[in-house]
Amino acid sequence: MTPTDSFTPAEDFHSGYVMLLGRPNVGKSTLLNAIMNEELAIVTPKPQTTRRRILGIYTRPQHQIIFMDAPGVVKDKRGLNAFLAREVQRAMDSADVIVLIVEAFEPAKQSEELLLERLRKLKQPVILAINKVDKAAKPTLLPLIDDYRQRFPFRAIVPISARKKSGVDGLLAEVAAALPLGPMFFPPDQITDATERFLCGEMVREQIFLLTRQEIPYCSAVLVEEFKDEDKLVRIHADVWVEREGHKGIVIGQGGEMLKRIGSNARRKMEAFLGKQVYLELQVKVKENWTRSEGKLRQMGFE
Ligand SMILES: Nc1nc2c(ncn2[C@@H]2O[C@H](COP(=O)(O)OP(=O)(O)OP(=O)(O)O)[C@@H](O)[C@H]2O)c(=O)[nH]1
Ligand SMILES: [Mg+2]
Q1: Which one, out of 111, 141, 166, 251, has a CA that is 20 to 30 A from the CA of 187?
Q2: Order of strands, edge to edge, in the sheet holding 221-229?
């Protein structure tokens, strides 16, 4: 059944917030999308793609699982990274269950050990999802599972491939079994807390991540200034903020070529998502060193 079918919630309904936790690039957002069967969160090959936590609300007659996709955990805690760390902490604080995601083709690293140390201080059950098994050599998987089992009392360990959507049902079953009894927090047909406006801004940022290089993705932010749903058309104006004049030139590109590509790719995704024609206008603006200034970060909504 689909979540929009009407149903009567079970008497022993379970619900709760489940955080997807892990280093950057391990596949948290890919997993959220695989679970929801929707492209909710943007996914790119570059680390630190996700900046704000978004919810994926998975409702079935037995339970409502509210997944939180959050930024990856990084050591540096300055500027924009301080905001990312706060987003991680806020999600952790509100989680009933934590799913720690690691990569199957790498042995546990120092950075994971630091995460485990943090988790040892918490009371919530922790489930380990070993992701990207499609990329790992099979014989390495069992020793890796053993290694993690010895490091931490995981409630369950589930190998998955978020990209190939394998193992995801098994993970869902483990998560559902760890949920407390609880009410339906959101209407059954609501799948996220993110607005269309925010998601369209993310689609622009996704293209910046995919099409530009070096520091550009990390010093760019997209703010949707206008989102007008007219009869047959959605009119969207977004500002792309960068840190320096030089960055502005790169994002615009020769003869405006780069900005045109970013815009037309993002617009196509928006049209598929909104099911309507989109008129998209992008403007590139400079805010000197915004990723390093507390005041400017606040002005841009990174609080
Ligand atoms: N081979 C393989 N690649 C995967 C899998 N899951 C995710 N990826 C890839 O890993 C990269 C990062 O995926 P994301 O979902 O953006 O990772 P994330 O953990 O959300 O990253 P941040 O938001 O930067 O913290 C992308 O190129 C994905 O396509 C998987 O199961 N197998
Ligand atoms: Mg992500």
Answers
A1: 166
A2: 221-229, 233-242, 277-286
Task: Kindly state whether residues 168 and 104 are assigned to the same domain.
Answer: yes
Residue 161 shares a structural domain with residue 232 = no
Please indicate, yes or no, whether residues 158 and 288 belong to a single structural domain of this protein. Answer: no
238 inside domain: yes
Domain of 263, in residue numbers: 196-299
Judge if pTM exceeds 0.90. Answer: yes
Number of the ligand 1 atom closest to the C-alpha atom of 71: 25
118 with 227, same domain? no
Q: Report the pLDDT averaged over residues 175-179.
A: 98
* Burial class of residue 11, CB neighbours in 10 A (0-12, 13-18, 19+): exposed
Which of 31, 43, 158 has most ligand 1 atoms within 8 Å of CB, for mutation?
43
DSSP-derived secondary structure letter, 134: G
190 found inside a domain: no
Q: Does the beta carbon of 54 lie inside 6 Å of ligand 1?
A: no
Tally the C-alpha atoms within 13 A of residue 140's C-alpha that lie toward its C-beta: 13
Looking at the structure, do residues 243 and 167 belong to the same domain, yes or no? no
pLDDT in tens, 42-101: 999 999 999 999 999 999 999 999 999 999 999 899 999 999 999 999 999 999 999 999
Residue position matching structure tokens 């079970």: 10
Q: How far is the CA of 135 from the centre of ligand 1 (A)?
A: 12
Average pLDDT value for residue range 287-291: 97
Which CATH number does the domain housing residue 169 bear? 3.40.50.300
pLDDT for the residue 106: 82
Kindly state whether residues 171 and 227 are assigned to the same domain: no
| Residues forming a β-bridge with 283 | 239
**How many CB atoms within 10 Å of residue 280?**
20
